UniProtKB/TrEMBL annotation:
Domain of life: Bacteria
UniProt keyword annotations, A-Z: DNA-binding, Transcription, Transcription regulation
Keyword check for Cytoplasm: no
Pfam families, A to Z: TetR_C_33
InterPro entries with a match to the protein in the record: Homeodomain-like_sf, HTH_TetR, MT1864/Rv1816-like_C, Tet_transcr_reg_TetR-rel_C_sf
Protein name per the record: Transcriptional regulator
DNA-binding region of this protein: 32-51
Length: 199
């Protein structure tokens, strides 16, 4: 038997990995079947055996990046139990992921996760599970827990979005400001714990 034809030995994960490589090098515009086929040295129809077009390719890439990000955060927070330490480590892990993989982070955060989607629901539950570990000692009601989760998420993702778009133009260190923000989130959570819940 001769060497297997590359198209025949190609796996779905090979296609996704090649797409992520294109994304890292060229940005979201590179997430197309034709560009990924060139990266793999194959003809585009070979990709359609694994992913049905550009939309399916982008979805598979986003889901894979979410999984990578969650694994990254698990590694960065391993062994931590103190809620404040967890919040600090989780916040720093998210920013470090965005700095190390800016195009992946942008693609990941632009992809909408949906609890009714069987593929994305487990990813949402993973993120919720981490936030619940951070917030568990505060014994928040369901509505206050949602408020706290939204506050933490908005602060961290908002800061990173400003940083990635180059809007941190003042001379104050962004690292110092980010640390202050993470500390301030603890105060914000305590406020949510104490404030009267409004409908």
């Amino acid at each position: 038997m001769g060497r297997p034809v590359k198209e025949k030995s190609l796996s779905r994960q090979d296609v996704i990995n090649a797409a992520i490589s294109c994304l890292d090098k060229e940005g979201e515009a590179a997430l197309g079947v034709n560009r990924v086929a060139r990266e793999l040295g194959i003809k585009p129809p070979a990709i359609y055996k694994h992913l049905d077009g550009n939309a399916a390719l982008k979805r598979a890439v986003a889901l894979t990046i979410w999984q990578q990000y969650i694994q990254w955060c698990h590694e960065q927070t391993k062994g931590l139990e103190d809620p404040h330490a967890l919040l600090q480590a989780g916040g720093q892990a998210t920013r470090n992921f965005a700095k190390s993989h800016p195009e992946r982070y942008r693609t990941m955060t632009q992809f909408q996760l949906n609890l009714k989607d069987v593929e994305t629901a487990p990813l949402i539950q993973e993120v919720f599970s981490f936030l619940k570990r951070v917030l568990q000692p505060y014994n928040l009601s369901e509505s206050k827990l949602i408020d706290a989760m939204r506050t933490v998420n908005a602060a961290i993702t908002g800061f990173i979005a400003l940083e990635q778009t180059g809007l941190m133009t003042l001379e104050r260190s962004a690292d110092a400001s980010y640390q202050i923000m993470l500390d301030a989130l603890v105060v914000a959570i305590q406020y949510i714990q104490q404030v009267e819940t409004q409908s």
